[in-house]
Amino acid sequence: MKKFSMIALIILMSFIFIFSRCKQGEASTPELAIDSTQTQAMLPAYGGFENQVEWGKHIVTIGGCNDCHTPKKMGPNGPEDNLDLALSGHPSQMPDISINRKEIESKGLMVAGGSFTSFVGPWGVSYAANLTSDSTAGIGNWTEDQFILAVRKGKYGGVSGGRNILPPMPWPNVGQMTDDELKAVYAYLESTKPIHNIVPQPQPPVMAMKK
User: What is the edge-to-edge ordering of all strands in the sheet holding 118-121?
Assistant: First the structure.
């Protein structure tokens, strides 16, 4: 009888222990949920970067904006970005490409100039824009809305009635960025060193000029 009572007591104590552990688990679940929510709220809002400007710089870098908007200079391994002129567009003092434009345009080809900031194709001649924060030659006086309109709609100057932005600017692709991404890019460009380089206006196709 005593043996049976002892066994019953052990079983009862085991049940109480297991039940109490379950209750503790239930009580801790809301705390874990709160901690998880707090952790999510503490995560950086700028793509994992410290601030909006740094995020924008990252997007500009991986997006290849320097490929066209930063003039090139010859380095030991070939053309490389001239960071003294970063994002300042086609140098205003650089002469045009000396080629047979009619032949290039008629054959649907594209040729890049020596600094890789000017381009000849069926559309004529286009020049990479100055994206620095300069208030007269760059985008320093642009609003955020103007910048987004220019990229989303391909309108020069960010004006709805402006001319179309010419190739090879891939605005249909760049325009797929989210609003937050474009705002970050704008914030970074507005933080850049202003470079007063007035980019030439584009030239129409040779055949159009002869009409």
Answer: 111-112, 118-121, 124-127
Which CA distances in Å does 141 have to 36, 132, 158, 193? 42, 10, 11, 14
Q: Of 127, 128, 129, 125, whose CA–CA distance to 208 is shortest?
A: 125
What does the alpha-carbon distance between residue 21 and residue 98 come to, in Å, rounded to a whole number?
83
Per-residue pLDDT tens digits for 5-27: 544 444 445 545 444 554 454 44
What helix, strand, coil percent values describe the chain, rounded to 5?
50, 10, 40
| 141-152 per-position pLDDT tens digit | 999 999 999 999
Classify strands 118-121 and 111-112 as parallel, antiparallel or unpaired: antiparallel
Q: What stretch of H or E contains 18?
A: helix 2-42
Helix (H, G, I), strand (E, B) or coil at 50: coil
Q: What is the CA radius of gyration of the chain?
A: 30
- Read off the tokens for 23: 């209750």
Confidence band of 181 (pLDDT split at 50, 70, 90): very high
Region 161-182: what's the mean pLDDT?
A: 96
* Structure tokens, 76: 């030991």
DSSP characters for 130-167? --SS-TTTSSTT--HHHHHHHHHH-BGGG-TTSPBPPT
C-beta separation of 89 from 131 below 8 A:
yes
